[in-house]
Amino acid sequence: MNKVFLCRETAAEETRTALVPPDIKTLTAMGYEVTVQSGAGVKIGYTDNDYSAAGAKIAGSADEGYALCDIIVRINKPDSIGGIRENTLHISSFDVFNQRPAIKQFADAGIKLVSLEMIPRTTLAQKMDIQSSQASLAGYYAVILAASKLPEIFPMMMTPSGTIKPVRVFIIGVGVAGLQAIATAKRLGARVEAFDTRPVVEEQVKSLGAKFIKIDLGEMGQTEQGYAKELTAEQIELQRKGQAKVCSMSDVVITTAKVFGRKAPLLLTKDMVSQMKGGSIIIDMAVKTGGNVEGSDPEKEVLLDNGVRIIGGDSLERFIPKDASNMFSGNIFAFLEHFWDAQEKTFKINTEDEILKGCLITSDKKIIHKNFIDQ
Description:
Strand content: 15-25%
CATH superfamily of the largest domain: NAD(P)-binding Rossmann-like Domain
Shape: globular
CATH topology of the largest domain: Rossmann fold
Order of helices and strands: EHEHEHEEHEHEEEHEHEHEHEEEHEEHEE
Number of strands: 19
Strand order of the largest sheet: 3-2-1-4-5-6-18-19
Largest sheet: 8 strands, mixed
Radius of gyration: 22 Å
Helix content: 25-40%
Distance between the termini: 30 Å
Oligomer: single chain
Mean pLDDT: 92
Low-confidence stretches: none
């Protein structure tokens, strides 16, 4: 198993690619044979010639590539599994908790499915963590997007006609995206405040020069994977009340609160948003999984009667696709390298490996991941 095929993404809104030429060059030097679908890197400035120079073959279509490979890599799940051969290893992000019929389809077809979001968040697997690599870029771009929409500048400025005060930015959710958003807003000169249900992140917030908002929600913590634990209805209501005053004084609010595999918690109600200042910007980065903000829309920007703009921040890393592709490619490379047997010159599937246990969903015409068996 050493023949890799890089697919061209089919979704019009997708700007990234799963492998870039520098990583392909290293993979081919290791012993992998790589085929690239024509046009796979065109949106980030990589031509077919760039891939050829890195040692890849060029396939004119997905079907042509499927016929040549035993490993498929792409950003997103495919529109169809037609043409993918049995026992092929398919590696991509997959949104598995919302794609149960597709998982069964892969199992029935005998395709081995790796869902990259399910890679364990361990030290060993850190280099393969697409969640972190892409979220960090999304957090950065959320601030840039807010700054481009806000009718004010971020930093304090002394002028002959008076002093411009720095804007106030409130970040809700201090995971990878939230931390990068804090750092970016501080670099732009904003006054930054942040909140997270995990008290353990307070020191991280302070180390970036931001103020940590304390709201007593009772007993809290995080999962073994580092995600925030799901709140009870009572805790969510306490959080909303504690955040309402901060939101009303903020010029920008960025929400990043997601619960892995579940619907995002609703943190900003219409009543809370109605109390915000005209011209304020809200970026809802959880809009794809139900939204943290009541009234947010994944398809369009929402302008409310009070002048507040709500922007759905779904997959913001797509707006900086070259860096996003380089980072995603680095994650894929680390995965392929980890399971590479240099002596036998093959990708070796070891179902006892802790990383593969976490992310291999189907194998041998069965659903094998413990979270999806018999569901």
